[in-house]
């Protein structure tokens, strides 16, 4: 199982955003497999533009995979999104992992981007269907563009597509349009149930069952004065809307050996890539190193 680090929640000692290039260098040197970013226009907290952040990470590394967790594909005009994705594939030498979700929160960013929030699911599905041809450089008649056609160049390899979300609709989308499923903050029971649904839906679609990943919220440095497990559960319950019992079962925390034990449980459920999103406000360097130590113990 590969272990990746979520960049978006990492901060410097003075509360600034962790430099993505420095984070990527350290993650690669520490033995982590990937660096992932969230994707928002306006999120109520400082956040860097996701494609540019991954480009900075790709430029200073050679092995580290880079990923969207997850790209709100429908929030952008499709040709521009395809151009960004193809460029990242080219710059990284094919290391991009394309996580895609329909988003929806906060609603204001959809209005700001001029995209009707009620159309996001349909726009996402249309984009996923058209994206392989766009990256291949084939002429494509664009959905929602009144017959406009575009032919992108240079061509780029299609990245692996991870479909975010844990709803029935997200599982159907993963089975029919994705290569893998990437839910966030789910329990082991949800993973087991989701894999069963994926097998059923992919069989209906005549496709192989997708792979499975997971994005987990974690407190890695509570034993060093960082956010406690209880505080992270409170955050997930009060700010993110998860039922408290669910948050208790889904979040990860503890010393590296305890984190390794929790991550190993995901591997036993067939998870091939886990993205760990650290919370706690401790220095990003410490978060990176603690996760790397946990990875080494799995």
TrEMBL record:
Keywords carried by this UniProt record: Flavoprotein, FMN, Monooxygenase, Oxidoreductase
Keyword Oxidoreductase: yes
Luciferase-like domain location: 14-219
UniProt cross-references to InterPro entries, sorted A to Z: Luciferase-like_dom (IPR011251), Luciferase-like_sf (IPR036661), SsuD_RutA_monooxygenase (IPR050172)
Domain of life: Bacteria
GO BP annotation list: alkanesulfonate catabolic process
Molecular function, one GO term: alkanesulfonate monooxygenase activity
Oxidoreductase as UniProt keyword: yes
Ranges in coiled-coil conformation: none
PANTHER family: ALKANESULFONATE MONOOXYGENASE (PTHR42847), ALKANESULFONATE MONOOXYGENASE-RELATED (PTHR42847:SF4)
Name of the protein described by the UniProt record: Alkanesulfonate monooxygenase SsuD/methylene tetrahydromethanopterin reductase-like flavin-dependent oxidoreductase (Luciferase family)
Species in which this protein is naturally found: Thermomonospora umbrina
